[in-house]
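Note to self: the last two entries modelled the partners one at a time, which told us nothing about the interface. This time every component goes in together.
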Amino acid sequence: MGIEEKLPSGILLTSVHKFVQWARTGSLWPATFGLACCAIEMMATGAAHHDLARFGMEVFRASPRQADLMIVAGRVSQKMAPVLRQIYDQMPEPKWVISMGACASCGGMFNNYAIVQGVDQIVPVDEYVPGCPPRPEQLMDAILKLHAKIKLEPLVKR
Amino acid sequence: MEGSLEQVCAGLRERFPEHVSEPEELFGEVSLRVARDHIAEVCTHLRDEASFELLADLSGVDFLGVAPSAERFLIAYHLLSLSLNVRLRLRVFLAEGDETLPSVTGVYPTAEWQEREAYDFFGIVFEGHPDLRRILMPDDWEGHPHRKDYPLGGTKVEFKGAKVPPPDIRRQPTTTTGYPGRIA
Amino acid sequence: MSTRELNVGGSDWDQVVVGAEDETMIINMGPQHPSTHGVLRLVLELDGETVVNCTPVIGYLHTGIEKNTEVRSWTQGVTFVTRMDYLAPFYNELAYCLAVERLLGIEAPPRAQAIRVMLCELNRISSHLVWLATGGMELGALSMMLYGFRERETILGLFELITGLRMNHAFIRPGGVIQDLPDGALDQVRAFIDDFPRKLNDYENLLSNNPVWLDRNKGIGMLDAATALALGVTGPMLRASGVAHDLRKSQPYCGYERYEFDVPTHEASDCFGRYVVRLAEMRQSLRIVRQVIDDMPGGRVMVEDPKIAWPAQLQLGPDGLGNSPDYIRKIMGESMEALIHHFKLVTEGFKVPVGEVYVPIESPRGELGYHVVSTGGTKPWRVHVRDPSFINLQSVPHMVRGGLIADVIAAVASVDPVMGGVDR
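The predicted structure of the combined assembly is written out below.
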């Protein structure tokens, strides 16, 4: 998926690279992966007061096949872990993951038998957002940092 | 104790003299001990004769270490009567190794998921339950997590001896993407 | 982490598939689904568009909170239980603290009780707003989502002003509340409750006579009173079946007997009845909040007993909110005993007498009960939560049998489950 597979390898295309990465940040569609309290704050970020539509992200795609970004919002239990991996695998390249909240980043306050201690044990994570739950402004800051990261990423096959 | 609740308890003692204990009142709440094999009959009587329409809660407790092993597990049934506006707690004690008792799903269908939860977390087997299997843990989980001999789990957090790079390295941009602030 | 092969299908799937007839289709809805209110999985057995059977599968958010409370002190338990039902965190904190206070044999001061009631009723409004927003969005009224969250932002601003956090506050502690109201808080609350009825009228105008809304909700998800009681259903679902049972009236706690309010019921026993009941409950909550702030008592917000009261004092200084300098001077400079006492209370916690209590309160979803067992130590022995969403979800198969798939969405939305409470 993505333009990387179509490009002949070994050729430097600076302006194409900048354009493609800028276009990707223009409408990063998130997949709905709201689990717990952070999901409510994610919904509040998408609502009118803290508007995600200004980044082109208000459409939370129900189907992972149409999404670029997975915001893991909430605590991931042992029963949910295979589902998380399956949804991540169903997303087409290029894809990014934001781990929102303390529970998704490191297990949070629940260091016990039931919670996966950090979602990066299951999927590769690009941004970690601390907080319990993070304020909408914190999530938007993470999204902006992700935009910066995407713009700097080289156009190679991942 | 309220008058109506006294009458209910007296009626219960009359009907099941050797299966139901004297009522005990603590912290403003009335509890009765019920013999294990007759819990369903007692609940039927309470629902039909004494108008306790709602089983509010079915809760399991593991008293490992603080009670003798003949009374290790407690199953507490919290009943509510809307018409009399009183609450009653029924207590059934189970011995270690002998954790079975009749199910009350025939009397109060709400007990279906609550008994599954008690089975999932304590290993209590409810005879006569239509579908007794795990409800909150994954299906292939081993062990009963809320027992006191089941560890809390989790990972050991390194507070001492954790390897954190010094600030000047932490603040370097990475070589691969040039994204600043990422730990190399 | 050792690798385990886990089948996402699960035994529910196999059971349903084996038991089904050839004509029916088995469809899995969830756990990742935009309309299932969190991680709820429904295994539907369909005959065309008609639902023959529905098996809810839960546990995808099980956090082991009840076991976690057994290794932390009584006060730290508040931070755990507040994250169970995350749309109504004050209710979890309140029920837990009432249970601990009943075991301790103390009562919170009147001002603390009034603050608790005010915060809880504002929380009821914000919880019902989320229900209205998500329920409306799932049934197609997309603008309802934006309106609901807009009002919720105002309420969350009030919570942030009073407690410091938008969600999961840990503000109500055993003995009272942790901090007094800041100056100007009551005026802001008053401004909100003066403005909100107009917005509620807007939402009613938007939805209540809308033919699409009525078609999607009237006659859907029928649950008569006898079935509801047998299934243990409480809260707005029970009141929409005609049973006027509200714990704030029948077994009042925290000073609710002093306030005047009605208990709305509806005879229809369907999704529309639940919608009407919840809207009416929002208006009654406004009424209660108005009475509370008109009549707010003065005095302490935490019990006087120094063995139980949280020792830290916060004060607003020139650089923000921080430890009160007078208190620091006292424990560091003047009294060694006060320092030791502070240290022990914060690290070890207070001891609670032996006993077991069950304290039920009326949360936005139904009867929220806490069965707390203490063996005399500084940590709870067992905290079992009777969560209303866990019990109410058992009614979903009964409500959707024989209906269409689209009615499953409406029925689940009208149950208003919060999976954090269901799975704990």
